[in-house]
């Protein structure tokens, strides 16, 4: 039994090393530009087939990475939503959309490649469906958030609500990727911290939800 | 001389066929998932090396595609800005950011792959610099637009202005890609036309620029 456990730990450590190496290479060179062989090498695996042995295809590896992050972000969102009271206003709900993501990335520190990885995956015709599924499965809290937004904006037409949800998701994804990229490149950032970046995003997203709806006859 | 001209026309038609085939395949399968050989085949070129003969590397091909669109969008923006008067308000300036893009894509009709193509390129570590250069070179009008936004929002801190410019760019890119994808997939769209999509974007972007700036001490 003890032997079995050590073996499990070894497998687990190998998988972890492969995930970390993959995400870094994906962020720096592009998901499709990186071969599974390069990931195995970067993870210190002598066996070039380590990725396919542990994960299957590259799509399976992308799915495993997306799932990990989706679960981390969801856990943070559940904690924030548990603290939200009946008097919550639009800004409180928008904060529950933004801060779980910026806090997750901040906690990754120098190992933060998630922003650049997920921005690529979101735009990729083959990968976007895979990761949408992972995020939907890992995010039951999103319904509570949508309900909260709805209560704050009862007159917003359903299709505009849907449109602004999509805008919110893209703004968060892209601005997180922008800041992560700037930090990695030692380039100037518009904000001094992830917390300030979240403030800027929340300011913009709250205003976006409150915008009057132009209708043409 | 006449022979030379026919030859030029032939070359020009081949390049055009390659660009169209490339963009469609990039939009549907992903820029990196498509081999130059597949592009040559889809363009009806017997010679598998047609892409490298006419464009060089895939990066050169991506650059040529980005340049064409950037020039088309710029031409539309120059026309809009020529009509803008001294009494222009924030919404007029934001319209000059949004409508040249939605009109460009609308004019492409069923051959619209630009939105999905440019969303991928924007997220790609190797390609984003290439296309940023093309867009910067083709967009001298952007400075006039930024100056107009500045005049409407004189108290906005420079770094927040820069941040909201980036947000505006991402929102336009991503929402154009969303609608183009939905149309290609025969999926429901939140708006009935590109003009309505532009209205929704302008509503959101105007509000985003007007949002109060939260500062923490």
TrEMBL record, chains A, B:
Keywords: DNA-binding. The keyword S-adenosyl-L-methionine does not apply. Residues 97-207 form the PsrA tetracyclin repressor-like C-terminal domain. Residues 19-65 form the HTH tetR-type domain. This is TetR family transcriptional regulator.
């Amino acid at each position: 039994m003890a032997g079995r456990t050590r073996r499990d730990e070894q497998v687990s450590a190998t998988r972890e090393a492969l995930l970390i190496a993959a995400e870094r290479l994906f962020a720096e060179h592009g998901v499709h530009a990186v071969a599974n062989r390069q990931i195995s090498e970067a993870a210190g695996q002598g066996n070039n087939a380590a990725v396919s042995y542990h994960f299957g295809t590259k799509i399976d590896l992308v799915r495993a990475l997306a799932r990990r992050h989706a679960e981390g972000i969801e856990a943070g969102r559940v904690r924030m939503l548990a603290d939200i009271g009946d008097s919550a206003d639009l800004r409180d709900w928008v904060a529950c959309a933004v801060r779980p993501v910026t806090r997750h990335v901040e906690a990754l520190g120098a190992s933060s490649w998630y922003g650049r990885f997920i921005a690529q995956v979101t735009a990729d015709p083959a990968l976007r469906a895979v990761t949408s599924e992972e995020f939907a499965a890992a995010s039951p809290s999103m319904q509570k958030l949508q309900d909260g937004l709805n209560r704050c904006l009862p007159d917003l037409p359903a299709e505009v609500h849907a449109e602004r949800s999509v805008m919110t998701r893209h703004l968060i994804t892209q601005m997180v990727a922008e800041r992560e990229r700037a930090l990695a490149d030692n380039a100037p950032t518009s904000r001094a911290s992830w917390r300030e970046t979240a403030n800027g995003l929340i300011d913009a997203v709250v205003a976006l939800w409150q915008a009057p709806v132009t209708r043409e006859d």
